[in-house]
């Protein structure tokens, strides 16, 4: 479980760092600078997800609300995204991009709860849009 926390945290920090230059270029002409940090934790399961991604919170506010998707739907989608993501981690073709630094340890049979699955699902959607990736 703690590996999941570390891997996702590192992944998101690296993605945030690689997106900082892009975000800086975009916000240079704008007076509003977004520095979003989102933390989800569950001490009983020993996991934590921290998303450091400029623009994620404002983008999330434009998406379908919590409760729209069932938890099982989100778990199935997350599992597919994690498998595709992890395949890119081990594929050297994607190594130079820096977007896929480490595998995500997402256990399909672990109940992470609705909130974690909702945010992870939407982060994958955001990641795909922001970095022009297709994890399908």
UniProtKB/TrEMBL annotation:
A Pfam family recorded for this sequence: DUF6146
This protein's name: Lipoprotein
Signal peptide start-end: 1-23
UniProtKB keywords: Signal
Taxonomic source organism: Mesonia mobilis
């Amino acid at each position: 479980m703690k590996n999941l926390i570390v891997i996702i945290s590192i992944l998101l920090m690296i993605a945030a760092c690689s997106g900082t230059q892009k975000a800086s270029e975009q916000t240079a002409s704008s007076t509003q600078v977004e520095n979003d940090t989102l933390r989800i934790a569950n001490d009983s399961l020993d996991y934590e997800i921290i998303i450091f991604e400029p623009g994620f919170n404002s983008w999330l506010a434009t998406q379908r609300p919590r409760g729209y998707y069932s938890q099982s739907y989100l778990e199935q989608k997350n599992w597919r995204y994690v498998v595709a993501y992890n395949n890119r981690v081990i594929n050297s073709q994607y190594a130079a991009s820096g977007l896929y630094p480490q595998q995500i340890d997402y256990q399909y049979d672990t109940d992470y709860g609705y909130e974690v699955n909702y945010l992870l699902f939407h982060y994958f959607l955001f990641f795909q849009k922001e970095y022009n990736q297709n994890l399908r």
